[in-house]
Amino acid sequence: MELTINDKKIELNFGVRFVRELDKVAGMMVNGQSFGFGLTKSLPALKAYDPAVLSDVIYSAAYANKPRPTQKTIDDFIDNCPDLGKIFDEVNAEINESNAVKVAAKNMKA
């Protein structure tokens, strides 16, 4: 999936590395120990159209871009997006098709 942010095409990837990056941004820390769960926490919030979570998901999925867009750049993009619902829908659709994430997403619906 691609987004255009500040006239730059940003490639978003929703594979295993995305899950690891999301764990860094949105995962659980207990007594300084990382327990992951970034995906588990983020998927329901993304389906509820939480813009902060959308920003975290886009940031995490943009890991391969050089330079990677900053969280502030993504926040500003979301704040000024004229059709934010479409972005949510596209990101959710991509996640549901990602080989690494689709099983978790499907099981969370049950």
Overview of this protein structure:
The chain has helices at 16-26, 38-47, 51-61, 71-80, 84-97, 102-109; strands spanning 2-5, 8-11, 29-30, 33-34. 28% of the residues are buried. The chain has one domain. The chain is globular, with a radius of gyration of 13 Å. The longest helix is centred in the C-terminal third of the chain and has 14 residues, at 84-97. It has 6 helices and 4 strands; from the N terminus they run E-E-H-E-E-H-H-H-H-H. The two termini are 26 Å apart. With 110 residues, the chain is mainly alpha-helical. Strands 1-2 form a two-stranded antiparallel ribbon. A two-stranded antiparallel sheet has the order 3-4.
- Determine the number of helices (DSSP H or I, runs of at least 4 residues): 6
Computed over alpha carbons, the radius of gyration is: 13 Å
- The number of distinct β-strands equals 4
| Series of H and E elements | EEHEEHHHHH
Major beta sheet summary: 2 strands, antiparallel
Give the proportion of residues in helices: 55-70%
Tally of domains:
1
The overall pLDDT average reads: 91
Beta-strand percent range: 5-15%
Structural class: mainly alpha
> What's the N-to-C terminus distance?
26 Å
> Major sheet: order of its strands?
1-2
Q: Per the principal axes of the C-alpha atoms, what is the gross shape? A: globular
Parts with pLDDT < 50 across at least 5 consecutive residues: none
